[in-house]
Amino acid sequence: MTPTDAELVNRCLRGDRDAQRQFVQRYQQMMFALSYRMLGNYEDAEDVAQESLVRAIRALDRWDPTRPMKPWLLTITANRCRTALMKRTKKPPPSHYPREPGAIDQNPGRLDLAEELDRALQELQPDHRECFLLFHEHDLNCAEVGEVLGHPEGTIKTWLHRTRKKLAEILRQRGVVPEISYELP
Amino acid sequence: MNCRELQQQLERAVERRLSPPFDDWRDHLNRCESCRKLCADHQLLERAVGEWSGIETAPDLSDRVLASLENHDNVSPAGAHHPPERAGLFFLFATIAAVILVVIVMQNRDVPDEPNVMVKTDIHTPPPEEVPEVDMQRVLDETRSAYESLLGQAQSTITPLKKAVVTDNNLSPAPENIEKPERRLIPRELEPLRTEMTQSFGFLTALLPETGT
Prior knowledge:
heterodimer, A: mainly alpha, Rna Polymerase Sigma Factor, Chain: A, 2 domains, B: mainly alpha
């Protein structure tokens, strides 16, 4: 039977190594995905995900069991991503999305639309990128995104719609033509 | 239904993760290109997000995280896990202790009782030089004496010249009684000298003897 977050955390706090491993395996993909799409680089994303997981496990005693684990972990990861992005301003940025083996799920039938979206995201300012990712990829609602980013829900809604409009513009500029699928008379 | 209403409904649908009611908007979409573009962009983004697939993490990520945690625990004394707030308190107390230590050390240093500043108190200012009082009578006497001496020297220099002039004019040796013309000539010869002396010692003009013929 899969333990709940609270049970897992209690065991982790007692120093249970198996529980810690379970905890990491449960959340590593989510934290790595946010890091990767925020930073656009596989190695940097791995480092940030690792650091975020270590920090989260060390700070588990501060987690409020009455609140969901996911936004709390995403907040830690987002903070680490912002720190990494600030450090990056002192160095030349890495190339956008180098094709790492195994970085993206192999899906031979899929179009390049997702990859175009990834590239377009890199052209956004970090706050707006985070907002879009937390809402669309990690399924947080606007209030939760606001908690993670430290902004009111109204601001998040404004950012979300502005970001969607901007992304559509970028995709159009890249030659990605939208298809109208709803039926018109 | 107008464009603003359609946009607000579309945004609400996005926020609530609902499918937009395109059928309800059909009449408006048929005549509004701007809103058709808005809906097309929405569908494009939804499709792109839908094609996002999971990202595989490195297979050893969990091992690295656990190793990092173990290293941290091994470094900590007795394997204790220090929450971040306790670490913060430790650094706070350590900082305060360091400041106190520095203050104590600074207070116990051999500091001279008085600052090492030289105050020069024996500055000697010389008294103003006394200007001796000028005895004008004495100056006048000395000047008159000097002038007379100069005048005498001039006369002794010019006299032989006059004798020579007289001798050349008469083509004969100068007579012995040359005193009279000589006395007349000498003051004329001295006229330039007198003028020069007047220019240089104008204030002494009153002392000069009258030139006579």
